[in-house]
Design goal:
The chain is 68% helix and 0% strand. It is mainly alpha-helical and 62 residues long. The chain has a domain at 38-62. The longest helix is centred in the C-terminal third of the chain and has 20 residues, at 41-60. The relative contact order is 0.20.
């Protein structure tokens, strides 16, 4: 994870809302909380950041 992004708290909030909306609409498309917690915490954090980063990109283009 080397890419840097600049965002506001409002953009981060909107990205989390979009992500959670997608998870709730199609939970089978996302890794379960149990599976995520079975991974090393650093790997889990990296995966979350990549995911949220992609949603931040969506927010930035709105």
């Amino acid at each position: 994870m080397t890419e840097e992004k600049t965002f506001t708290i409002a953009q981060l909030r909107e990205a989390v809302i979009l992500w959670e909306s997608d998870v709730r609409a199609n939970p089978d498309a996302f890794q379960s909380a149990e599976d995520t917690r079975a991974e090393p915490i650093e790997q889990c954090a990296d995966a979350y950041m990549v995911c949220i980063g992609s949603y931040l990109d969506k927010v930035a283009t709105q």
